[in-house]
Write a structure and sequence with these properties.
With 206 residues, the protein is α+β, with helices and mostly antiparallel strands. It is built from six helices and six strands. The protein has a single domain, classed as Gcn5-related N-acetyltransferase (GNAT) (Aminopeptidase, 3-Layer(aba) Sandwich), CATH 3.40.630.30. It has helices spanning 8-16, 20-30, 34-44, 89-106, 119-127, 171-181, and strands at 2-3, 49-53, 60-68, 74-81, 109-115, 146-152. Strand 4, helix 4 (89-106) and strand 5 (109-115) form a beta-alpha-beta unit. The radius of gyration is 16 Å and the shape is globular.
Length: 206
């Protein structure tokens, strides 16, 4: 798999050939007409981005990034993929590690929501240091089959406070996080969908 510049053709290919778990997350967030809505979001997205394609035939496999929120240093991480990603997991993890280094330059915390049965994505997230131990806020409009996950950046020799014990214990901060994770209409985004935003590539071995 190799990294490629963002382009609408490859974006649409991935959206039209989702893994079933990713498709469930997309429909939950955007409805049945999710392809046009998410494609527009990604085209307009300006943050750190990865698009991975097969070295063998240039087939698009995965794309992802991290969107800023109104909270300084807090971002919403997202990823979308086709079934081919299962054949490229080692290379994908290597690329994600590089992307996480870019995230850490701007964000002390990244988070999102994920479909509980999206086990493959949860495995990747766990390897990257994401936690799933936060209880779902009772006041938030989150689908019952989704859960919250987060990761905090390690600071030189210092232990970063766990958001569940520090900032996320404050209802106002937690509500704002859920609002960003849920998109502008407060429906569920997920690790596999890019958050909607309101307005007034490098080679690797396979």
């Amino acid at each position: 798999m190799y990294r490629k510049e963002k382009n609408i053709k490859d974006i649409l290919y991935i959206l039209e050939n989702f893994r079933e778990e990713d498709k469930h997350e997309a429909i939950t967030q955007k409805g049945e007409n999710y392809i046009h809505a998410i494609a527009s979001d990604i085209v307009n997205y300006k943050g750190p981005f990865i698009l991975g394609c097969s070295k063998k035939d240039d087939t698009p496999i995965v794309m992802g990034g991290c969107c800023p929120t109104e909270e300084e240093g807090v971002g919403v991480v997202w990823m979308l993929s086709t079934p081919e990603v299962e054949k490229n997991q080692i290379c994908l993890l290597r690329n994600i590690k590089e992307l996480m280094n870019d995230f850490d330059k701007d964000y002390w915390m990244t988070f999102n929501l994920i479909y509980k049965e999206n086990y493959l994505a949860k495995k990747w997230l766990s390897k990257m240091g994401y936690s799933f131990n936060m209880a779902k806020p009772v006041f938030a409009n989150i689908p019952k089959d989704f859960e919250f996950f987060y990761r905090t950046r390690k600071l030189r020799g210092l232990k970063t406070s766990e958001p569940s014990n520090a900032l996320l214990g404050e209802r106002s901060f937690e509500q704002r996080c859920v609002k960003h994770a849920g998109g502008c209409d407060e429906q569920a985004t997920s690790a596999n969908t890019v958050p909607e935003r309101k307005t007034n590539a490098t080679s690797t071995d396979s």
